[in-house]
Amino acid sequence: MKLKNMMEKDGGTLSWSEEYHVEFELEKTALICLSRKCIPSTKSPNKTIPAPQQPITICNHTIQPSRSHKFLGIIIDKDLNFREQAVHALAKGTKYTMACMRMVRTTRGIHGRLMKRLFEGVIIPKMLYTADIWCTGLILHKACYRATLRMASLPEQHPLNKGIKLAYNDYPLKLEKINPVRHYQKWELDVTMHIAEESKAVQVEDNLANEDLQAYSDGLMVDRGIGGATVLMRGEEVVGSKKFYLGSNHVHMVYEAKLVGIILVVQLLKEGGGHVGIKGNEEADEHAKRAAQGEMSGPRELPKSLTVKKNEIHMLPYSKSVLKQYFYTKIRLEATAIIKKSP
């Protein structure tokens, strides 16, 4: 190996150490093979395992490869993702933060202004020591964006909500507000649900259904647009239909459109009628495609939950999950571009 030859050859590292009376502690020497190469597992053919790394012997001293090693205060791992370093930094920061909380007490505690200086001068530097190496700008952006979404989605009654509204202009106000859901211990769902186990069973159950009115709903994404729709049928005749356009797939997901379809089903069943059309599940799919392309029922035809005052259509708030997923995809693309440009 090149490393072994560099250490043991004439005029090499060991010869230099003897000449200048500098001794290498081979017992403290660590070997890390920086590789993410994987091979098929012998136990599970469908799985892969990290490729085995060979030890190195220098001056009759065998050094076994290790997954990680701490060097100059940084934990370097074989995959170079610095996951262990991040966990170590988080644990250290949590320890210091808890110590600060014990010092900042309403009685006999240090002043908040002094604690702020201590936090900024001691805790943050210790947490982010050599962060320019193991914590790239993209990782910091990811953490900041995740924290921003968490604060922006707080419910109206949360004590931080007012301050967030003052700190931001318009963006958090368009984001969905996530309220904590609490149910009584003996709470049970008051509707009956049934989901067919196989796709073939769906068709069989649909043919066996003998209800006078049958509702079909769907939610789709077409050309980066999200829409939901529902149709109400009596036999082979469509007696009602409704469509709702949610917006771009950058701020909404198909799951929301499917929920909107269920809301429209309830509204159709209340009205119990409408206009004449075509057939069941395929018709709902066709209406959902048209809704995803921007077609929408009139404000007077939509339920109150999807409209506001003066019969104006209420645009749904942005989805936190979609915004996070879109930003993470953007981060991955930026990281890939950086890796391609790196030497």
How many distinct helices? 11
User: What percentage of amino acids are in beta strands?
Assistant: 5-15%
The strand count comes to 9
Q: For the terminal residues, how far apart are their CA atoms?
A: 24 Å
The major beta sheet can be summarized as:
3 strands, antiparallel
Tell me, rounded to a whole number, the average pLDDT. Answer: 81
Overall shape: elongated
Helix content: 40-55%
Q: Structural class, from helix and strand content?
A: alpha+beta
How would you write the strand order of the largest sheet? 7-8-9
Q: Give Rg in angstroms.
A: 31 Å
Order of helices and strands: HHEEEEEEHHHHHHEEEHHH
- Give the uncertain stretches in residue-range form: 273-278
Summarize the structure.
Helix 3 (83-103) runs antiparallel to helix 4 and helix 6 (137-152) packs antiparallel against helix 11 (320-341).
Description:
The two termini are 24 Å apart. Helix 6 runs antiparallel to helix 11. The chain is an alpha+beta fold and 343 residues long. The longest helix has 22 residues.
